[in-house]
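lol so apparently i was supposed to do this last week
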Amino acid sequence: MKQLVVIGNPIKHSLSPIMHNAAIGALKLEKMFHYEKLKVEEKDLKNFVEKIRSGEITGANVTIPYKTTIIKYLDVLTKEADLIGAVNTIYKQNDKVVGHNTDGIGCLEALGERGVETAEKKVVILGAGGAARAIAFAIALNNAKKLVILNRTVSKADELAKSIKNKIGTDVESNGLFAVGEVVKDTDVLINCTSLGMKTVQNKKIHITSTMLSKNITVMDIVYDPPQTKLLEEAKKAGCNTVNGIGMLVYQGAHSFNIWTGRKPPTNVMKNAILWHIKKTKKMKSNIALIGFMGVGKSAVGRSLAEKLDMNFIEIDDLIEKKNGRSILEIFEKEGETRFREMETEVVREVAMTDNAVISCGGGVVLNEINVAMLKENAIVVLLTASSRTIQKRTLNDRTRPLLNTRKRSEKINELLSSRRICYEKAADHIIDTTSLTKKEVTEKVLSTIKGNVLWR
Ligand code: S3P
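anyway here it is w/ shikimate-3-phosphate bound
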């Protein structure tokens, strides 16, 4: 059995074993490789490197705080690691212990996966530590038009900027973090490489608010725990394209994996393993389901939420109509409500498994507990309510809803509302009364209510 490890201190938080072991499993290499996390004290670093030399350990990832301190114990550095001055991957080649760095390429690939280019663009990097160095060099080598490096300790930003300018010739500026407001005005990409925003240092927030960001900027945070950092929340609010730290974690790991095993790992398996773990441990979901009575605004609010969060919008009733080639009204008339409810459950079953969607549910979806259970697997369920009078007003001239096509419309609405109330409330994770609110206000209320619960891309 070949042993792979990630070392650091602290190391408990690392999700590397989860994704590497998932890749090992997917490639059926369980009998050959195993990946673990290992807490190493600084005084034991030399000893650790000896274990790689002796073959007791086949390969390692290195994380905080050893990315630079480990270098003195290694025999050679690759071109990338030497340029960056930090190591995140160790392996043995021709009897030499080699230090390499895959953070930069990991970041570029995570951006590339989302269609974000850095060549010929202005890129602002926050931080000047190990990860910032790797990313700054990779972006400079990839022909950025201009790089700006901002760091709390300005001298460290200056030093990194100088080193990039000398070695690569890129146009680089440096300054303190305080300059961020001015600098982001005309930038294309902003990447946070500081640990501000990480679970353990959450209180020291980065002072970037939505009003400072224009919607044309792509904002990336390399912090992956939590995946929704304060910075990304602000960026979403501003309508920016956002990229969380999970992609970079996966791609830097995939390059290390390839070096140790000679195999290209399935990055989708690695990413799903991470997403599954985060969702389970943080009680997060990938979708938002809007439930509630006819006329509470599920579709309108759903559309605006999806647009704001860059999620897909799914209307259960639309899918039923498409699948059936008939309108809801016709289905009720020709096949009856019972058949309609069956179709509704079929569609909910399909939709419940998607990711990154805002799902607007027909008013009666919650009448079937199975529908609710399926939705709740991967969605935060938000109940929109409104007073009976408001619902009557909002549905006044609507003839598309078969249940309301009766002469005693207001009685029917009251009757349905009272018989369904318990089902709605039982299914809901959150309840928002829309009675006196505009669409924009409801959207904002949903956004602040679900904060931290929905794992958007
Ligand atoms: C229904 C609500 C409608 C539609 C069908 C049945 C209900 O959807 O699914 O007419 O039972 O409440 P909306 O709530 O989107 O109008």
